[in-house]
TrEMBL record:
Keywords: Membrane, Transmembrane, Transmembrane helix. It comes from the Bacteria. This is Sigma factor RpoE regulatory protein. The keyword 4Fe-4S does not apply. The chain crosses the membrane at residues 74-96, 102-121.
Amino acid sequence: MIKEWATVVSWQNGEAQLNCDVKTSCNSCASRAGCGSRILNKLGPQTSHTLSVACDTPLVVGQKVELGIAEGSLIGSALLVYMSPLVGLFLVSALFQALFGTNLAAICGALLGGVGGFLIARGFSLKLSRRESWQPVILSVALPPDVLRVETVTSADDR
C-alpha cells in the first residue's frame, strides 16, 4: 500500500474533498544546478491535487488524513497510461512502413498509433477508475487542527 497525507478541504454527505500536495525531490540533493527534473517541475504549474474520497467519519476543514492506494492499481494505471501510446506508436508505424514502404508513411503511422494508444488508454482508464480496488482509501485520521494546542509558559525566573 502506498501512503500519502492529505488535508481536508470539505466534507459533506460522506464524501471528503482532499488536497494532496505534490512532493518533489528537488532542493534535497547536491546536483540542483544541472538537474533536468528540477527544470521540468518548474514548468508544471500544478503543485497540489484535489480528489474526492468516501468517508463516513465527519471531518473538519484543515484536518489531516492518511490516504492509501494499492501498489497493483498504481502500477497498472502507469502501465496503461505510458505503454499503450508507446505500443500503438511502434505497431502502427511498423505496419505503415511495411504497407507503404516510405518514411513519411511510418511517421504518419507513428502519429496515428500514438494518438490511438492515448485514446485507448483514456477509454480504459475511465472504466478502470470505477473499480473499488483502484480508489484511494482513508487509512487514518489525525486530530482536528483546533483540538491540539501547545502552550509554552515562561516564568519571570527563566528570563
